[in-house]
Amino acid sequence: MSSTKLKLALLQMDIQIGEPEANFIRAERMLTEAVSAGDKPDLIMLPEMWNTGYALDRIHELADKEGVRTREKLAAFAQEHGVLLVGGSIAEKRDNGVYNTIHAFGRNGEELGAYDKIHLFRLMDEEKYLQPGTQTGTLALDGTPAGMMICYDIRFPELFRKLALSGVKAVFVPAEWPNPRLHHWRTLLQARAIENQMYVIACNRCGQSGETVFFGHSMVIDPWGEVIAESDDREGILTAEIDFAIVDEVRARIPIFEDRRPTLYE
Ligand SMILES: NC(=O)CCC(=O)C(=O)O
């Protein structure tokens, strides 16, 4: 029987706004560091828009065309090291628009899934420059169903519930979530894990772009809502081990999916 456990490494990276070259070098350095550690991870994850940061006024020029560069690099890395890779999100130019897109890869470098951010965040002007996604994002991790969302998406519990009802046991959330909303970040992530009885794995950036400070605090939260790993505000790699068997245990202990009465509120 295949293992229900996965060792994770979340790359909490400081992103240089508008500097894809520097960001690729930094991401490659951190990826290499993650697989060089004694306890090699099964899955590595990056933060949101790590190739460009929120350089939105130049995003059409800076975004990765069709995601080719990112996909080639990440697929090759996943294959070389036999790891799963949730490639954070990137600014990706496609069909004359720019999307905020995740690409995820399997241990042989195959693309497991992609997701374009559905909810664009007005406080950071995303809706003026980016195209919204039109589909939810799922992938299978060594056979276990998981979901993908990006940052502001965590404010929409309906999206989590839809994925939970489809059988998803973990959701990955790359983010660029800044001050002064650390309490929203921590509370929403924990609530989404508790109410859907699933793992929530959230990788935020750190550092500062202009006046905006990104507090890091990448988190891995279990289906009981316990924070099993959390970063501080500095660049680094957060590690944790998850066990999908715990999702089934928690869902059996409090059977909310059996007790729902959707005809009354849907
Ligand atoms: N990049 C984002 O979507 C930021 C979302 C955010 O900060 C929030 O408060 O929501």
Cα shape: globular
Backbone CA Rg:
17 Å
Mean of residue pLDDT values: 97
Structural class: alpha/beta
**Helix count, DSSP H or I runs of 4 or more residues:** 9
Identify the CATH homologous superfamily: Carbon-nitrogen hydrolase
Could you name the CATH class? Alpha Beta
List the secondary-structure elements in sequence, H or E: EHEHEHEEEEHEEHEHEEEEEEHHH
Distance between the termini: 38 Å
Note poorly predicted spans.
none
Just name the CATH architecture: 4-Layer Sandwich
* Ligand roster: the ligand NC(=O)CCC(=O)C(=O)O
How many separate structural domains? Answer: 1
Q: Give the CATH topology.
A: Nitrilase/N-carbamoyl-D-aminoacid amidohydrolase
Count of DSSP E strands? 16
**Helix fraction bin:** 25-40%
The portion of residues forming beta strands comes to 25-35%
Let me know the largest β-sheet.
8 strands, mixed
Family: Belongs to the carbon-nitrogen hydrolase superfamily. NIT1/NIT2 family.
GO molecular function, one term: hydrolase activity
Domain CN hydrolase: 6-244
Organism: Paenibacillus cellulosilyticus
Fold topology:
Blueprint: E1 5-12, H1 20-36, E2 43-45, H2 59-62, E3 64-65, H3 68-81, E4 84-86, E5 90-94, E6 97-105, E7 111-116, H4 126-129, E8 137-141, E9 144-148, H5 157-165, E10 170-175, H6 182-196, E11 199-204, E12 206-209, E13 212-215, E14 219-221, E15 227-230, E16 236-243, H7 245-253, H8 256-259, H9 262-265
Parallel strand pairs: 1-2, 2-4, 3-5, 9-10, 10-11
Antiparallel strand pairs: 1-16, 4-6, 5-6, 6-7, 8-9, 11-14, 12-13, 14-15
The structure holds the ligand NC(=O)CCC(=O)C(=O)O.
